[in-house]
Amino acid sequence: MWIAALLIVVVAAVAAIVAAANSARRESEAQAAALRQEMQALLAAQSQAVTTHLGQLAQSLTTQLGQVAQHVQTGMASSGALASGAQKAVAEQLQASTEMLGSIRQQLGEVQQAGHDLSGAARQIESVLGGAKTRGTLGEAGAPRWNFHKYLIGPDGQLAGTWPSQVRPTDSAITGEIETALPKP
Known about the structure:
The chain is mainly alpha-helical. The protein contains 4 helices and 2 strands, in the order H-H-H-E-E-H.
């Protein structure tokens, strides 16, 4: 009789341990899912910020290049009649252009740093997700797999093209799209 009571106590203890283990497993899975969603939201926000910054940079670059082209054309038209004062104005325009290029270089450095930051976040998310694949609007084949995935933002600020890491930045597919997107003089 006491053996039956002991057996019932042992079975009850095992059942309690199994229930506690299952509860802990469900709680751990819920926490992992919440962390995964939070990391995905963070990556999406950072990606949007980089995309916005790239769009603004592209717009700024297009405007500044248009101004430089206009300054060059103005200088060429009046070069036959240049006097000492006109030469000084051209020198000032060249100085302003040099300063604009310095500003562009700084902005490109900021974008590059943002890309490095985004790459670090992507590695963290991949380690949390255990390499799980995600599908977005680009589909399985177009999803970025490394930080050298390339995006082209058009003059309107919209996505004009994407290329995977294996495509070099100097590839004719990319340079052709860029030349097509640039304003015609």
